[in-house]
Hints:
Elements: H1 8-16, H2 20-27, H3 36-44, E1 47-53, E2 59-65, E3 77-79, E4 84-89, H4 95-98, E5 106-114, E6 119-130, H5 137-140, E7 148-160
Amino acid sequence: MARLVYHEGEREAHRRFGVEDEAAEISDMVTDRLSLGVRRFIEARSIVFVTTVDGTGRPVTAFKARPDDMPGQPPLIRAADSKRLIMALQPWDDLDVFDNCLQDDVGIGLLFVDFDRRARYRVNGRCRAVDPTAIEAEMAALWPQARALVEVTVDQAYANCPARIVRLIAAD
């Protein structure tokens, strides 16, 4: 059975703009599992762009960030295994985005960018709130101030072309 990578609207756009062959090549790179290297990449990021879908189907986007200058900070997102990511809903997070995850089985998109090495990775899936006692104790203990923990189940995962990733320069 063929794996559905693109929805009908995307396939129509591929036909319209004559990029069906390129889309087919890219679809070969899409997986539903995170390799060990990708999990390490994700856990090392200090920022992630997050989009969820609200109850009306409207997408809501924000970013989640961790200060790099504070030693001992836990990762923003921890890979539980090759199919699941865990993140904490912190008091300072944009509630419009993350409150959607408190519903069951909500669509979510995550974009991880390494601005220094010009690399990016996307994860699309479903999110839901989880009881901290339902996951490993050491993982739940990473985020003692969390309002809730969110589990992301991976449906699609793939690297993106590094073109047009700007290099960030720290201000003095």
